[in-house]
Amino acid sequence: MSEHISPLAGKPVPRSMLVNIPRLVTAYFALAPDPAIASQRVAFGTSGHRGSAFAGSFNEAHVLAIAQAVCLYRRHAGIEGPLFLDQRFQNPNHIKQPRRSYRSRCELRAPD
Prior knowledge:
This protein is mainly α and 112 residues long. The protein has a single domain (15-109), classed as Alpha-D-Glucose-1,6-Bisphosphate, subunit A, domain 3 (Alpha-D-Glucose-1,6-Bisphosphate, Chain A, domain 3, 3-Layer(aba) Sandwich), CATH 3.40.120.10. The chain contains 3 helices and 2 strands. A two-stranded antiparallel sheet has the order 1-2. Strand 1 and strand 2 (48-49) form a beta hairpin. The radius of gyration is 17 Å and the shape is elongated.
């Protein structure tokens, strides 16, 4: 197996590669996915959902849809009791400010 080392390894991230966090959080809440566009639908890989708020492929609508599906599944399966949500398992793509996706999931879960 050939080893590939990034030329950026061990160096500060260039300014041009930094993400604008306020813009990312705005996109998370403001952009709505279009179900007709395959890349904007919820999809899972070996490490979970892959997407970006900027591309409309990971935003609050996705988090709410997944949380709702979990709630409906639990109801249908007769599963009762608490549903534990761990704040450490968040979107690794920087939407961690005040745990935006965690807050969305808890708000959906609260009335149930």
